[in-house]
Design goal:
about 40% helix; alpha/beta; Macrophage Migration Inhibitory Factor; disordered C terminus; single chain; two-stranded antiparallel ribbon; 2 domains
């Protein structure tokens, strides 16, 4: 589930559609699924939000600012995948500008946000990860339960320590 904030007029409409597709594919790939799979794509929604104004420090921004919130079931992204989503989405947005604005990654914020197990709502009810994995990966109930347990039990990687 993607919430993509693109300021009004920042990108041409054709570019926006291609960008939303690219961002969707980035997230699907980092979740471990095939971006070409029609079942996976059918569960991958992107909501385009169009702010008419963005303010920085209380004043109108001097160039477009973008925000992408990728909501995913808990346990789907490890530290490396989260970093990959952030870097690749940022680059995709800056590439979509095609030189219209100074290339500045500081104008793009990306938030991969995990939805806790039991809090993913769809079809009028909470949907556990094993049900989601069963549908998207074509797994039987036992395989989906095992994979969901593996992904949920994987401890997050320790933060890297800067070297001097």
């Amino acid at each position: 589930m993607l919430d993509v904030y693109i300021p009004d007029g920042a990108l041409p409409p054709g570019t926006e559609a291609a960008l939303l597709n690219q961002v969707t594919e980035i997230l699907i790939r980092h979740e471990g699924f095939d971006p070409a799979d029609p079942v996976v794509r059918s569960a991958s929604w992107a909501f385009l939000h169009r702010p008419t104004a963005v303010y920085v420090g209380g004043a109108p921004a001097d160039a477009p600012r973008y925000k992408v919130v990728a909501s995913i079931p808990e346990g789907q992204l490890d530290e490396l995948s989260r970093a990959g989503v952030i870097a690749e989405v940022t680059e995709a947005i800056l590439d979509a500008e095609d030189g219209t604005w100074p290339r500045d990654a500081g104008r793009v914020w990306v938030f991969p946000t995990e939805v806790p197990e039991g809090h993913w709502g769809g079809h009028g009810q909470a949907t556990p990860l094993e049900v989601i994995l069963s549908r998207l990966a074509g797994l039987d109930a036992e395989q989906a339960r095992t994979l969901a347990a593996q992904r949920s039990a994987s401890p997050p990687a320790a933060p890297s320590t800067p070297t001097s």
